Amino acid sequence: MWKVYDRLQTLGVTVSHATLNKVQEQIGGHFNEQLIQAVTEGKRFRIVGDNVNFMVAASHQRKGNSTHMEHWFASAAIIQNNSFDHLPCNFPQMPLLDLSPQSFLPSDNDFKVITNDYIYIVFQILTRHLTFLKKFKPFTAELKNDLRAKDCDLSSKNTVVTFPVLCKNEQSYAEVVDIMDSYEDHIVDIYRKANFNLDGVKVHIGGDQLTRERFSGAKRVRQQAATERERFLHLSPITFEFFHLQMAFLTMFYKTLYNDNSTEAGTLYAEKIKLGRTHANGKDVKNHYDQCKELGSSVISSHVVVAAMQYFGMKDVNDEPVMLKDLLSNELSDAEKQQILCNVLRTFVQQYVLRDSLAVIQNSTSTADIQTCLEIDIIGPDGTPMRILIPVAKPQVDAVESYSHQVLELGLAYECLLLNVKIPNRDRMLPLLKYVMCLLKGHNWKSKYALEILKFLCQQLSTMDVKLAHETFYGLFVNNSGKEDTCIGADLQMEHIVRLVKDNLKAVHSNKTEKTMAKRTSALSGMKVITNQFDVTSDTLIRASRHKIPSSIEDEQLIIHSLLPMQPFSCVPGRQMSSYKSPVQSPLKKMNIQNMVSWIREHQYLQLHDIGQ
Fold first, then answer.
1. What is each CA distance from 516 to 294, 373, 511, in whole angstroms?
2. What stretches of 259-372 adopt beta strand conformation (E)?
3. Alpha-carbon distance 364 to 278, whole Å?
């Protein structure tokens, strides 16, 4: 309402409902012109889709006319701004079975890449809270620059074109086939109007885990069809998306650490109550994602600060770390000071964050399998020497230290995932995905997203050529602002579009026919272009919206002050947390590396022969 008022009240313009429908129909008839123009200019586009669920109420409830849930499907095309024609396109990069299963587990070099990301995240947090390090905050710009991809520019804005919504349910394979048929129709129409041959054309499609699975299944169903178009050969590759991976990982974080009976300082539930974050429902992360994300971020940051203070030997945030006193020397250049800081933080990350991960994965054994035994040599009755092994009781675990360590291990992995979506870099993301796959698999052996990551790694490391691998990876992100380091996942962009579609559904009231909604939704992209141009030419004042979430620094300071007296990172054997039946442990300690290797090898064979990619 306000957007319309801001733009038209100065002009005295009013539009009748009939005229509105006519204008929308005219705009919607040209929804694919931007895609035709992009193809003409040699650009690519990809397609992402998601379901639109809404309730349809009945004014008179009766048999055959009752309140029910409708399941429709929305899609959008994202025009890609980067070209990778300079990269080799030898198909595939290497035979999939030539890759050992260990290639999909984090190596020493992978952990070095992950550690460098952690250094940036930790340094950003510490410069917000430790007085001594605030003067070195300018170093973050150089550290961030090292994170950016060097082979493409992701600072330009992506054009997103909304397709007409379809009255199709992705839970039915028959209707998913219809959805993919509509994609093929759009692709054929666009390339023909752009006077391009369809030979060899591949359009990347995807969605959340369920959508990806349905797309792949529909493609398998059509494999015996007569033509390439009917076999959906133009729709490839098919991938999952990163926003829903972030949501799945945050859900795992809360399942591991959230207990609504917990009152101990520093725990998620206790801090939620103390800070008044009542909407952060850790048992329903999917429907309270933003609130859970903000609470988790505050708790993670506070634990990072307290751990760093113990590592530096600091009792107060205003103290001066003894091991960093060299940074005050005027004889050192900024580059040398930055190197000293990075070296110190690298050791901190290895000792406090990646301790269990390095021990389990690099030693290729689960710490749960390691038993300490006392060996005793004795002489039997017949004089035969014998050796017996007596199991030694494991040392008592410090439940507080174990919990705090898991906040760091899982929390910084999640923050690193957020960072790698915001600043995409294939060389950094692939090592992180290997690590995230292990954490998800250790938490739940049947994890769907662990399998999605493995399939994606098979594509990126083997079955795709280098050019296609880069095109597919960077197609998973959308830049809406035209600024550096502001990318979001393509499926999050789709969530915004679904919300926009639902707003239009409300506007049509009882007239929710497929024809009506197709007209309205096909006009969304054109309407956005027109309104943006109107804003520019008329100098429209855009009303600022009040931030719903206040600054978290004060909240984090409260958590830090409550954590410091507990010394959560000092190991006190036998220290308990009454609200937890057993100490919280790393998911990696539950994972058997040999079983993991067998699982990877099994799915390498399945992926090699999968026709739904």
1. 39, 74, 7
2. none
3. 42
pLDDT of residue 396: 79
pLDDT of residue 26: 63
Tokens representing 86 are 């300079």
Cα–Cα distance, 238 to 216 (Å, whole number): 7
- How far lies 161's CA from each of 52, 207, 286, 432, 522, in Å? 17, 16, 27, 31, 9
In angstroms, rounded to a whole number, what is the distance separating the alpha carbons of residues 443 and 165? 37
Residues 6+ apart with CB under 8 A from 575: 398, 399, 400, 401
Beta carbons within 10 angstroms of residue 513's beta carbon: 11
3-state secondary structure 134-147: HCCCCHHHHHHHHH
List the structure tokens of 17.
């409902």
Query: Burial level of 140, CB count in 10 A (0-12/13-18/19+)?
Result: middle
Residues in the chain: 613
Look up residue 530 and give its two tokens: 């027109």
* pLDDT value at residue 366: 44
- pLDDT tens-digit series, residues 389-448: 766 556 678 899 999 999 999 999 999 999 999 999 999 999 999 999 999 999 999 999
pTM, two decimal places: 0.89
The mean pLDDT value of the chain amounts to 87
**Other beta carbons less than 10 A from residue 114's beta carbon:** 25
User: Tokens 């931030």 map to which residue?
Assistant: 547
Instruction: With H, G, I as helix, E, B as strand and everything else as coil, classify residue 510.
Output: coil
The region, left, alpha or beta by phi > 0 then psi within -120 to 50, assigned to residue 546 is: beta
**Residues with pLDDT less than 50, the chain:** 1, 365-371
Residues in Cβ contact with 557 at an 8 Å cutoff, skipping those fewer than 6 apart: 129
Beta bridge partners of 79: 45
290-322 pLDDT, tens digit per residue, is 999 999 999 999 999 999 999 999 999 999 998
CB 313 within 8 Å of CB 322: yes
Q: What local confidence, expressed as pLDDT, does residue 549 receive?
A: 54
In what helix (H) or strand (E) does residue 413 lie, and over which residues does it extend? helix 399-422
Question: Can you list the alpha helix ranges (DSSP code H) found in 353-398?
Answer: 355-362
Question: pLDDT, tens digit, for every residue of 96-137?
Answer: 999 999 999 999 999 999 999 999 999 999 999 999 999 999
State which amino acid sits at residue 249: F
Residue found by looking up tokens 């091991």 in the block:
323
* Contact criterion met (CB below 8 Å) for 305 and 131: no
Which segments within 80-226 are labelled E, that is strand? 160-162, 203-206
Report phi then psi at 50, rounded to 5.
-160, 155
CB 99 within 8 A of CB 610: no
- The answer to whether the beta carbons of residues 559 and 295 sit under 8 Å apart is no
